[in-house]
UniProtKB/TrEMBL annotation:
Chief localisation class: membrane
Name of protein: Inner membrane protein YjeH
Alphabetical UniProt keywords: Cell membrane, Membrane, Transmembrane, Transmembrane helix
Residues in coiled coil: none
Subcellular location: Cell membrane
Molecular function GO labels: transmembrane transporter activity
Domain of life: Bacteria
Membrane topology (UniProt): Multi-pass membrane protein
Transmembrane stretches, start-end: 7-26, 38-56, 88-108, 120-138, 145-162, 182-203, 215-235, 262-286, 315-334, 340-359, 366-385
Cellular component, GO annotation: plasma membrane
Length: 423
């Protein structure tokens, strides 16, 4: 295979999607909950992010297949768990990108007078553009996300620094926040570190994966941490926020000293671009994983990638068709966007849980194992907030993935000494 992803392009695939809409949505939430102590929560969550990024990058290096981390899950927990993890991620991506499309289209429509009346058309245009970029191949994907993430990072960093320089005084936290409030905030902020688990689905197309992936992770992680911490610190020191706690807290506030009234338009473009980066990365990863599974025979053969194709076309068409169906159901109010997000989150959490559990068998050192265990506990708590529909679909996908093991277990019970004696 002609490998095309180097340190710079794979970093572009990481930074934008991992920042995602979180850089727009999460800092204001943290400040509303913790005030000027929000930066403490962000430091804690970024420390957790270091462990999360390191673990999943290490696991990605252990595999040479675009099936990604799921291969390692199968090796450490059993082959059935490889299928289970793969199906969890595929199920999540059947629903999650629709929510991202709605978020991106919302920012775009808010910049256009009367744009909300045409949101469905904006969504379909974004979906079509996404398909076109993915069909152009991995190089185009890397370049698009690199440009989007670089511009975003540059604007946020410059805007934050300028904002802080304009303040009469800069405040630092003078006490530790209440544990209960801090815990609730950390639960929400955990989404800022989700995304590293799909990097392994690009490993076949990475030049010298062991060196490239680890170096790209360090570059991307440094950029993500710097942008999140600087943006949050600038926002919680914003003059507009300090005037009154009733002020609507928006990340656009940090850009006002530099860009004035254009801040909201610029932030809308940034948010839409980051959502788009997330869409490209996640869909690109899962379609490659589906093609690799088809090669092994665990998915129908028609999903295989042909040699002349730059990207797994049939897998992409299948997922896009499902996304169109979900979009139609939301548009006509048969289901809600919140319902879609809840289901996607359920499967994303379960997939991450399997990866973290498998990683306990991949790492050495008591401290690292303790930190991974803490991450597992946090994810397990998050899972309890899943909607009933999410639990039902999770059960269905789990049964379909593990049906052979279940049948074998039932057969062993049926032929066991105990049951023979009873009969």
């Amino acid at each position: 295979m002609n490998k095309k992803l180097n340190t710079i392009t794979i970093s572009g695939l990481m930074i934008g999607p991992i920042l995602g809409s979180g850089i727009v949505l999460l800092p204001p939430i943290a400040i509303k909950m913790l005030g000027d102590k929000a930066i403490i929560a962000w430091i804690i969550i970024m420390l957790m992010g270091i462990i999360f990024a390191y673990i999943f990058t290490k696991m990605s290096i252990l595999t040479s297949s675009n099936e990604g981390v799921n291969v390692v899950v199968g090796e450490k927990l059993g082959q059935n768990f490889c299928e289970l993890s793969s199906n969890y991620l595929t199920a999540a991506v059947c629903f999650g990108p629709v929510a991202v499309l709605y978020t991106a289209s919302g920012f775009i429509c808010n910049m256009i007078p009367g744009g909300n009346n045409y949101q469905i058309f904006v969504i379909l245009i974004l979906l079509l553009l996404n398909v076109l970029v993915l069909l152009m191949g991995i190089t185009a994907m890397g370049r698009v996300t690199l440009v989007l993430s670089s511009l975003t990072g540059l604007i946020l960093v410059i805007g934050s620094i300028f904002n802080l320089s304009e303040q009469d005084s800069i405040s630092f936290p003078n006490a530790f926040p209440q544990i209960t409030t801090l815990g609730s905030t950390l639960l929400l902020l955990f989404w800022a570190i989700i995304g590293w688990e799909v990097i392994g689905s690009y490993v076949e197309e990475v030049i010298n994966p062991e060196r490239t992936l680890m170096l790209a992770m360090k570059i991307s992680l440094s950029a993500v941490i710097f942008i999140y911490l600087l943006t949050t610190f600038a926002l919680q020191n914003s003059t507009s926020y300090m005037v009154t706690k009733e002020t609507d807290i928006n990340v656009s506030l940090i850009l006002i000293p530099l860009f004035g009234n254009l801040s909201y338009i610029i932030m809308g473009i940034i948010a839409a671009g980051l959502c788009y980066s997330t869409l490209i990365m996640i869909l690109g990863a899962v379609t490659r994983q589906m093609a690799s599974r088809a090669e092994k025979g665990t998915l129908p053969a028609f999903l295989r990638k042909k040699e002349e194709e730059r990207s797994p076309k049939r897998a992409l068409i299948l997922l896009t068709t499902f996304h169109c169906l979900v979009i139609v159901l939301i548009h006509y109010n048969y289901v809600t966007l919140e319902w879609t997000v809840g289901i996607a989150n359920t499967f994303f959490i379960c997939n991450a849980l399997l990866g973290l559990i498998a990683s306990l068998k991949c790492v050495n050192g008591i401290l690292l194992k303790v930190l991974i265990t803490l991450l597992i506990i946090v994810l397990a708590i998050l899972l309890t907030f899943s909607p009933l529909a999410g639990w039902l679909l999770l059960l269905l996908v789990s049964l379909m993935s593990m049906h052979k093991s279940i049948l074998n277990f039932i057969e062993k019970l049926r032929t066991s000494t105990f049951f023979r004696g009873v009969s």
